[in-house]
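Exercise 4. Each item below gives a protein and its sequence. For each, produce the structure-token representation.

Item: Sec-independent protein translocase protein TatB (Terrabacter terrigena).
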Amino acid sequence: MFDINGWELLLLGLLAIVILGPERLPEYAAKFGKFVRQARTMADRAKQQLKDEMGPEFSDVDWRAYDPRQYDPRKIVRDALASPPEDYEPAPVVDKPVSAPKWHDPTVPTPWDDEAT
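Answer:
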């Protein structure tokens, strides 16, 4: 939850002993334990309330499938480019020569539509 490993937790405990002292440490440890229990109870109640309000149809949803951290954009692009879609049909080959494009004659004024702008 807080991404604290064992050494960091040990360091925090030693720091609490030094700062609070051995006289006040049990009192603050009890307060911290009470706070953790209250936070856990509140989280459980909120989770239960959410389940009750959403109804039974949402109990079967696999929420991990919607986690954006599991998607790698590089893999998605690689998979999309690796194989054509199932309904892909190549364009037919046309043997007719392609006509040259008609280029604009610089002596003719450019067409302008007054109503377009």
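Check: Residues 48 and 54 are 10 Å apart (CA to CA).
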